[in-house]
Amino acid sequence: MIVDVEPLLAFTVLVSYPIHGSLHTFLASLIGGSLVGLFMYFIDRSFKRIYRGLALVKGDLGLKGYLVAGVIGWFIHVLYDTPLYYEMMPFYPLEGNPFYNSLPYPILHAFYVVLLCTGIAAYLVNTFKVSSNRCGVDHAMLQAGLLLVVAATLLLLSFDVLMLFLATIMIAGGIIVIHTSLLKLVKQWKTRIMLSMLCMLIAIIAFTVIAALSLSSLKVSIEVLLDTFVNLPTVFFAVLWISVLTGLMLLRRPLIEASSTVRPHLTFILILGWVLTPAIIGILVFWITLVIMAARIGETKYVQ
Q: Rounded to an integer, what distance in angstroms lies between the CA atom of residue 297 and that of residue 140?
């Protein structure tokens, strides 16, 4: 994600700068990846609790482990982008991109989708196993549902039709898993939980309608997508936004009572993040809070 700050800057601030420039090189993966690994190593102590809650680390990686992870992660990102973008110079300072268009786009696209789904599935299965041993099956299911929603929101950033509908399916699955696990964990709030699930499913239907009306080709630009959204009836957005807000408010008390590690202020920030989504910053707040909440639930002590 850090590497893709470059295209974001090219779209917004550095208009004349290439979309995939200096950061999208193998040389940058060595330098930038090492710096990221070094940074992550120094903040490890502050975030270790979250890492463990999300089953991201096992034991102490040490400085070498973080450096290797940073370099490999950056390198793989650059490698996967090389067949897609002609302006890249992966072997900088050498010019040109020998990998560009090495395979037809549909094949590459299908391969990346399969790879992504496999990675998400592998991570969720591993996290579920780790959390099941630590906090029990029901809490592990609740965490898995939250992580499904987290992963799906990242897919939405691709502005791709296939990813969009895949994300919609994942969100629907995550919502069902979250509410089903809460029904098992919390006894006295069943009506609220069921009403919350109904609200969330209504929101998914509204989002599906918006997506179906907005996207007509396999890949659309951000500009076209935004222009299309502006022309759509605002009623769908209102239904989506209000339904999710209502569902979150109904779910606040069950979430707090389901896990001793989920504090009231965390659920409040989650709701506040959604309220602020029209201001964009709320999306980031909402997403980060979901991640923290999933990590906290993964720390819940198992009580038989």
A: 8
- The pLDDT tens digits for 28-80 are 888 888 888 888 888 877 777 888 888 877 766 778 888 888 889 889 888 88
User: Exposed e or buried b for every residue in 235-251, given b needs 16+ CB within 10 A?
Assistant: ebeebbbebbbbbbebb
In angstroms, the CA 257 to CA 242 distance is: 24
The number of angstroms, rounded, from the C-alpha of 101 to the middle of its chain's C-alpha atoms is 28
Per-residue pLDDT band at 154 (split at 50, 70, 90): confident
Return the domain boundaries, the chain.
5-81, 133-297
**Residues counted in the chain:** 304
Which residues lie below 8 Å from residue 303, measured CB to CB, with a gap of 6+? 136
Cβ count near 33 (within 10 Å): 26
Secondary structure of 272-297 in the HEC alphabet?
A: HHHHCHHHCHHHHHHHHHHHHHHHHH
Q: Count CA atoms closer than 13 A to 140's CA, side-chain side.
A: 17
* Residue 113 scores a pLDDT above 90: no
Residue 114, pLDDT score = 87
Is residue 147 within 8 Å of 294, Cβ to Cβ?
A: yes
- CA pair distance 220, 214, nearest whole angstrom: 10
